[in-house]
């Protein structure tokens, strides 16, 4: 009876494990089914994208051919423009050289004018200071005269 009891317990335990395993198998089957459906959907999307890519590749080839023609035309226009630009560039370089020379002369003239201005400004300041000093001296003298006249009268 003890062995039977133990065997019964083992059987019950094995049945629980079997039920658990069966439940896991059902879950796995559901997961596999979902994944297979997902794979199927992905394959459908892949086929659709492949068709799109083929269509886009054809469009791209046509666009490339068109672009090549446009590039060739643009290259021809660019060559003629480059020649004109080189001619104009030489003219501009000559003009730039003249302008730089003139600018340097103007800088020197400006610096000379600034030095003369600073010198004259300093002279004016000195004269102003001298005039203010003379003015103060005269004011003091006038004040002295007023107080002298006040004292006399």
Automatic annotation (TrEMBL):
Similarity field: Belongs to the ODF2 family.
Keyword flag Nucleus: no
Positions of the UniProt region annotated as Disordered: 77-118
UniProt keyword Coiled coil present: yes
Segments of skewed composition (Basic and acidic residues): 108-118
Originating organism: Polioptila caerulea
Main location group: other
GO CC list: centriole; centrosome; microtubule; motile cilium; spindle pole
Localization (cell): Cell projection, Cilium, Flagellum; Cytoplasm, Cytoskeleton, Microtubule organizing center, Centrosome, Centriole; Cytoplasm, Cytoskeleton, Spindle pole
UniProt keyword annotations, A-Z: Cell projection, Cilium, Coiled coil, Cytoplasm, Cytoskeleton, Developmental protein, Differentiation, Flagellum, Microtubule, Spermatogenesis
Gene Ontology BP term (one): regulation of cilium assembly
Designated name of the protein: Outer dense fiber protein 2
Gene3D superfamilies: 1.20.5.170
Compositional bias annotation for Polar residues: 94-106
């Amino acid at each position: 009876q003890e062995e039977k009891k133990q065997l019964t317990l083992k059987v019950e335990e094995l049945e629980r494990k079997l039920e658990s395993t069966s439940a896991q198998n059902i879950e796995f089957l559901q997961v596999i089914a979902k994944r297979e459906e997902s794979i199927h959907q992905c394959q459908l999307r892949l086929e659709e994208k492949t068709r799109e890519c083929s269509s886009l590749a054809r469009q791209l080839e046509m666009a490339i051919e068109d672009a090549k023609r446009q590039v060739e035309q643009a290259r021809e226009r660019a060559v003629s423009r480059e020649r004109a630009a080189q001619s104009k560039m030489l003219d501009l370089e000559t003009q730039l050289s003249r302008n730089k020379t003139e600018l340097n002369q103007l800088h020197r003239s400006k610096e000379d004018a600034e030095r003369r201005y600073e010198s004259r400004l300093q002279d004016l300041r000195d004269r102003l200071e001298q005039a203010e000093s003379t003015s103060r001296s005269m004011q003091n003298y006038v004040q002295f005269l007023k107080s002298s006249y006040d004292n006399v009268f």
